[in-house]
Sequence to fold (224 residues):
Amino acid sequence: QKEVEQDPGPLSVPEGAIVSLNCTYSNSAFQYFMWYRQYSRKGPELLMYTYSSGNKEDGRFTAQVDKSSKYISLFIRDSQPSDSATYLCAMSGTGRRALTFGSGTRLQVQP
Amino acid sequence: DTEVTQTPKHLVMGMTNKKSLKCEQHMGHRAMYWYKQKAKKPPELMFVYSYEKLSINESVPSRFSPECPNSSLLNLHLHALQPEDSALYLCASSQGGEAPNLFFGSGTQLSVL
Fold:
């Protein structure tokens, strides 16, 4: 079993839809949770960063962490064609600086 | 300046060549990273430098040799690579300490012939 599981998609939605992206994980030591957006042949761009459980909102993006269920989510409101990209969840525990990535979900927003 | 700059953006090299990838950041970050990413796969960690010292080496073959000349610069020296080493090589930096939120460069797309 992988430490971090993420549905690879592709996920196709119409413009304006609410998008829900999710990851599950098995390592209870994970404390830091991140979402990255990656366009083709470009480096990942940090979208959201959360420490421990809870919600965080930034514009059209909301990140949720439920440590009791080992489940994290990213919601995108009013999705735009420019949101079409691969979304990677990533997480890390205390004492280890390196990230463990999910496999990425490819999102397509249709105009 | 919130950028991590990588050069070159594209590199084609033969198996007998020696080349170097360069990375620069001016955010005052004290940790720098090299990742390798194959198509449709997540990034894989290669090396971590913390305060200019190599702190993690993920059992990377010796044909990849990292170097951190100062806190703003990170190099990856390449020698005698194999075609399967063709990938996107990503540099990243973070503040150091506990917070591991990494900022990535755009990467170097490497092709080994």
In short: Chain A has a mean pLDDT of 93. DSSP finds no helices and eleven strands in chain A. Chain A touches chain B at residues 32, 34, 36, 41-46, 49, 51, 88, 90, 92, 94, 96-99, 101-104 (CB under 8 Å). The two ends of chain A are 37 Å apart (CA to CA).
